[in-house]
Design a protein that fits this description.
- Helix content is 40%, strand content 14%.
- The longest helix is centred in the C-terminal third of the chain and has 23 residues.
- A five-stranded mixed β-sheet has the order 4-3-5-19-8, with helices on both faces. It has a three-stranded antiparallel β-sheet with strand order 15-10-16. It has a two-stranded antiparallel ribbon with strand order 1-2.
- It is globular and about 75 Å long.
- The chain folds into two domains: 198 residues, D-Maltodextrin-Binding Protein, domain 2, CATH 3.40.190; 209 residues, 3-Layer(aba) Sandwich (D-Maltodextrin-Binding Protein, domain 2), CATH 3.40.190.
- It has 463 residues and is α+β, with helices and mostly antiparallel strands.
- The chain is built from 19 helices and 20 strands.
- Helix 2 packs antiparallel against helix 14 and helix 18 packs antiparallel against helix 19.
Amino acid sequence: MTNSQTPQRKFTRRSFLKGMTVTLGGAALTACVAPAPTTTTATQPTTAAAAPAASPAPKQKLPIIYWSMFGLEEAAQAQTQVDRFNKETGENALFMSIGWGNIAQKVQIAIEGGNPPDIVSLWSQAYTWGPRGLLLPLEDYAKADGWTGQGWSKPAYDALWSNGHLWGTGHTLNMFAMHVNQSLYEKGGYAANKPPTEIAELDQMAEKLTVSDKDGNLTQLGFLPWQNSNLWHWGWAFGGNFYDEPSDKVTCGTDERVVEALKWFQSYAKKYNIDKIDRFRSGFGRATMSGDDPWYVGKVVMQMDGSWKRSWVPRYAPNLKYFVSKSPTKSGIDPVSLIEIGAMFNVPKGAKNPAGGWKLAKEFASKRCQIEFGKLVGDIPPLIEAARDPDFLNAYPYNELFIQMAEKGGRAWPRIPSLSLYQTELGRAVDEVVHGKTEPAAALQEVQAKVQKDLDEFRKQTS
């Protein structure tokens, strides 16, 4: 799964809560509200001895309301898995596709309104939402069921936890590697079996593979650090660290290797002229999920991209000749990749059937569900046994490369309550630096101070 950039439809909290009743398969369902159990009371007979009161009707079993970010084929797969779960368990899980452009906002409104679903699929919001009381911790359910994440890659299992609590499960991993348009790469004089492995080598290749017209306008980018990527990845690739867990300190502004990575971003903005870069990239639009993707059509030769891309190539660019390699790093640094839970299955605070929500979340994390979704979207199952199962392993090229990265080299974001702020502020810092508004060290020191203040305030409030 990928984090869509589809604009969110604006709506008020009141209008949304009034419209919480949704129609699914012709039946109207009100999220998380189960009919009240009924009782039967016997009337008094005219005889002297009164008949005993009738026993109450059995309490009706609560449904499991599942709000999903999945759409299209992914929604169909999720529905199939829910139907199978219901058939095998006798549960009544109800699948509702909310859509990834709106789900975070809608779930938060539902939580605040006291009427949330029992299970939701989200991304990294758990690191912020969980410690702030919007999600239920699940470690007690996991312990009772003996669910320990055994066999998962360590960074993937670690990514389910923050602030000492288990906030969910997952069935795929978003991972990143260098994706290369092989035709353009070879046209530039490079062999596909010799990808760049170090930053200095990548810089040389990028220069040779960047093309401008007679007026100096860019027509092809060999590589751009922030194209389909971010400072998190490249900070790690330079050997840097964004957070020190033992001391609970944000470190982006004091870790010289992170500062060096942002200076590297700045060097590209200066070398290729940020105005020309912006003008060239403005034509890319929102073409990521279409045949106009700049990598498909030869406007970008090399870019960091997600494991899911391989599932899109046959659909959007069936004639594309490409290869995937591990990310270049600074000399002496092992290859790295962000490991993001492609969809984390969480139980919101106020869920009417949290035990049912956990039960379905556990099913989604099963080996069979991981393989099924991995085959559909191209993302790596976090359970290594599932990832190495021939049914998945043979489904896409370069699966072995991503699995190796999951086992060694995967990095999770800092799992702190201030992560959302941290992500936003790093994005702002990159934009300001590449556009010449501030210098890397100053920008990152500002980010560090702001995020650390937010984190410290949260710790005080919850201590």
